[in-house]
Amino acid sequence: MTSQETASFLKGEVFFCEAEREGVTRKRMAKEAVKYVWEGAIPLQIYLHKSDVASHPAPPPALVLAPRIGYLPLLIPLIKPYFKDSLPPGEDSIWFDYKGFPLKWYIPTGVLFDLLCAEPERPWNLTIHFRGYPSNILIPCEGEDSVKWNFVNSLKEAQYIINGNCKNVMNMSQSDQEDLWTSVMNGDLDAYTRLSPKLKMGTVEDEFSRTTSLSSPQSGQVVAETDVAGQVKTARIPVRLYVRSINKDFENLEDVLEIDTWDDISYLNRPVEFLREEGKCFTLRDAIESLLPEFMGDRAQTSGEERSMDDTEEADGSRETGEIKLVRIQGIEMKLEIPFSWVVNNLMNPEFYLHICVLVKAPQR
Fold it and tell me: Are 362 and 245 in contact (CB under 8 A)?
């Protein structure tokens, strides 16, 4: 081997080792990100509604740390004993509100917080009711059983979107289903990590580690399918998008008006077709544009971007386009240029849905 060949060989070895180290580092970072999601919690200060107070004086608020990936009804076993001496006799019909606004129990607690608190409020002040369930606004909840049913049903929906069927969830043994649900209730990531591969949901190739994947055949990523046009379709991603529309413009998040009705929130349960072209990164912006083209088209604006007079006022007096003011996932205010693959692989909820909260300035008609 000549000296030039030796130098080329050594250079290749160095590149391969660096790629391997980069792959290990990225995997470690990904594990840390998922760990942060599972350990994420919101401090709650929960008041007993005055109509339910049967003692004097009224009890002080309960302080609870609520897991982001959890659900409000799962906190009832912690909260009810605290207030039991102040409750009136009768049958419980428990629900929560935020500033008089009834909270939907089947939406993860972290999503509710991100959606309703434009400016994060800590502790988050909620009110618990033991009577007067608003059945005209909220669907019935029978405690943990209802929450578990909702979780498993969402899991089936997600698997159908990803795989075209939900047989892996249906074929899961009863004990495995119970253990999977218990891992979510207890925030036990290790137990969940052992059980969730049985669902065979697959993974999305991370754009960050794509170079490493090409260098290392043991990257563990799913091989993508390539269509005749040269595009790569890696997955269909289950997404739940919550769009909160604000009619009045604002400069700071603390100026956002309180929400009055769920009618001010649009809910989209729709998959994102994860498409990637050679040399182009599929970003969070691309994903949201596929769901909200009216806000992400050529004439739409995202907060902080400059816009010319020609874009907002046309000679014929056409209406102004909307503006995305904030995108929040797992409490993180996201930059739209981030690769969507990283978001999917690190910020999904345990039922394999990606929950995205968007605050928009509605267009003036």
Answer: yes
Low-confidence ranges of the chain (pLDDT < 50): 6, 9-10, 13-24, 211-233, 299-301, 304-319
C-beta pairs of 258-264 under 8 Å, 24+ apart in sequence: 258/99, 258/101, 259/101, 259/116, 260/101, 262/104, 262/137
Backbone phi, psi, residue 263, to 5°: -65, -20
String of DSSP letters for 109-162: HHHHHHHH-SS--SSEEEEEESS---TTTS----THHHHHHHHHHHHHHHHHHH
The whole-number pLDDT of residue 116 equals 96
Residue 210 CA: distances (Å) to CA of 26, 92, 216, 276, 351: 11, 53, 10, 12, 26
Give the tens place of pLDDT for each residue, 334-356. Answer: 999 999 999 999 999 999 999 99
Omega before residue 140 within 30° of 0, cis: no
Tens of pLDDT, residues 23-35: 445 566 668 899 9
Nearest-angstrom CA–CA distance, 71 and 138: 14
pLDDT for the residue numbered 227: 46
Pull the structure tokens for residue 239. Answer: 């997404």
**Dist. CA 162–CA 178, nearest whole Å:** 22
Q: Which residue from 183, 153, 182 is spatially nearest to 170, judged by alpha carbons?
A: 153
**For the sheet containing 41-48, what is the strand order?**
62-67, 41-48, 124-129, 95-98, 101-102
What string of DSSP letters covers 334-358?
--TTSBHHHHHHHH--TTS-EEEEE
pLDDT score of 260: 86
Please give the radius of gyration of the chain, using alpha carbons only, rounded to the nearest integer: 24
Predicted pLDDT at 77 = 96
Local structure of residue 282 (DSSP, 8 states): -
Contact 291, 237 (CB under 8 A): no
How far, in whole angstroms, is CA 174 from its chain's centroid? Answer: 27
Tell me which DSSP letter residue 314 carries.
-
**Peptide bond between residue 134 and the one before it cis (omega within 30 degrees of 0):** no
Which among 60, 61, 83 is positioned nearest to 130, based on CA atoms?
83
Q: Which DSSP symbol is given to 206?
A: P
Give the closest residue to 96 by CA, choosing from 136, 146, 150, 132: 132
What is the structure's pLDDT at 279?
Answer: 76
